[in-house]
Amino acid sequence: MTAAIERVPVAQRTLPHWLRFAAPVVVGLLIFTVWIVYVDVLGSAPRMLPSPLAISRELALRWDIILEDMLVTATNALIGIIVGSLFAVFSAGLAATARPVDAMLTPLVAALSVIPIVAITPILNTMFGASSQFGRIAVATIAAFIPVFVNVLRGLRQTRPVHRDVLRASAATRTQTFRMLTLPTALPYLMTGLRIAASIAVIAALVAEYFGGPADGIGTAIASYAKSGRAALAWAYVVGGILIGLLFFLVTSLLERLATRHSSV
What we know:
globular
């Protein structure tokens, strides 16, 4: 039995739970230590790379203001995820049902996926006005739509004909077939698409704030303080953006795990 355990590939061995949490903490502390030594001890860092201690001070002193801008960016990203995901699920359902719709949507999605955010954001901000958040929300919506559409369409096509034939032979209706077969099969793919879309939508919403629109949000603050030479405050806003991304990633990862567990029961 010992020999059988030793032959198990390393990639297939599960790590202890404590190690999964301890490893990122150790890596983070190591990076933090090297950063302090590079900036504060050696003093050879560029001007726009302040000490982590200075960034922490700015984050603590101006947390209320940073939090307000975080809420703006997070709201734009969240609306984009919700709207983009709903539209993606509806479009993927049509594409999976009708081949002509699939033939029309696939090239459009492929075209959207290669459009740079920095190219379309100024156009949308100008189109909807400098005082409107709609341009930023539209960018986040487009960013979220693509991964959800691709994953949901793939999930809807995973049901095997033999399974559908069994339900049809059992006199199951289309609604029952969708509820008992198609939806459980596609749900893990939807959750994976949402997890990917959450990170992309946050990045899209943050980048969109660099190119016009209202004078709020994490991206606008980073650009403004970086240009004025207040590097520590700009990095404090970067930390705020990272916190938004981590929150969205953790929530969608938890939803994905719950959905996968439910579908496997």
